[in-house]
Amino acid sequence: QQQVKQSPQSLIVQKGGISIINCAYENTAFDYFPWYQQFPGKGPALLIAIRPDVSEKKEGRFTISFNKSAKQFSLHIMDSQPGDSATYFCAASHGGGSQGNLIFGKGTKLSVKP
Amino acid sequence: DSGVTQTPKHLITATGQRVTLRCSPRSGDLSVYWYQQSLDQGLQFLIQYYNGEERAKGNILERFSAQQFPDLHSELNLSSLELGDSALYFCASSFGPKDTQYFGPGTRLTVL
Question: Per residue in A93-104, pLDDT tens?
Answer without folding.
Answer: 886 555 678 999
